[in-house]
Amino acid sequence: MRVWYIRARWLLPIIGTIALVCLLCHRIDLHRIANLRQDADWSVLLIAALLTLPFVLLKAFKWHQLLKTSQPQTTYTLALRSFLIGMGASLFTPARLGELARIVCFPKRRLEVFTLVIADKFIDMSALLGVFLLSLMLLSPWIGLVGFFGVGCSWILIYTGFKFTKSAKWISQKSWLAERIRLLRQLPRHLIVLNACFACICFGLMSLQFYLLLSSLQPVGWQVGLTLPIILVVSSLPISIMGLGLREGTAALLLGSYGVPMEAAVAAAFSIFVINTLLPGLVGLALSPTLMKGHKGQKKVKKNRRREEMGRVEARMTGQS
Length: 321
Known about the structure:
Layout (H helix, E strand, L loop, with lengths): L1 H26 L2 H10 L2 H9 L1 H19 L5 H15 L19 H30 L1 H24 L4 H5 L1 H11 L3 H29 L10 H8 L10 H10 L6 H59 L1
Helix pairs in contact: 2-13, 3-10, 4-5, 4-6, 4-10, 5-13, 6-7, 6-10, 6-11, 10-13, 11-12, 12-13
């Protein structure tokens, strides 16, 4: 039964991706998408692409601030490399779970880094839900208020459960879980707030990029940028690989009410994925083999040192005998 569950968990996103992409190809005119590049404003497209650099650097800086709480000696370069490797691994996993691969850069204290990755992802998701609700309230006030009430109740339940863990006996009996929760509680509140603010700025940069991508294809209003948080929330559902088809279909559905053709919406949604996720992820995948070779080299050095020490001990034993 467990084998079938594992197979279904990996097969369903593949089937969902194929179905969504086929549906999109049936509904849109592929020739019109190919012709969009002739009318596109390439200077605006270049500006949107260049905004990827501050986006990635700011996300890495946010990750670096969390790392310094448990490993003060961590450099920004190492944090950036770890972040990019996580982005590379997340290209092939549902709900971006591959970002847990950031721990490969820290072989000595992986459990602590694993906990910080969870905290970083939780902060990102909380910020995304915040801007998602803000977008809903600006686009549709009543739906936004209902969503805000629902998320507020969920936050109260999560906070109550987190407080309950202080007195839970079953947690204290599991030392590894108690250690992880203790590390989360030790995170300074001002750092959590600062990271949430950085996450909101990153989503703001993405919304600006999305607006620029659409405006390079045809004249649009600034309100179209507010639809991106909704697109990101829907595309994070684990029913397709890398959100393919789901992201583009949601963009076509939402932007149709603003007079944006389906072809332009699909092109802009796919472009924001390419410049903000795919390209940094490919850089991370390129860094992974180099990192693994470095770890193998370190292991060989350690093994050689152990052999030398064992040889010295054996030599002393034979000399004494």
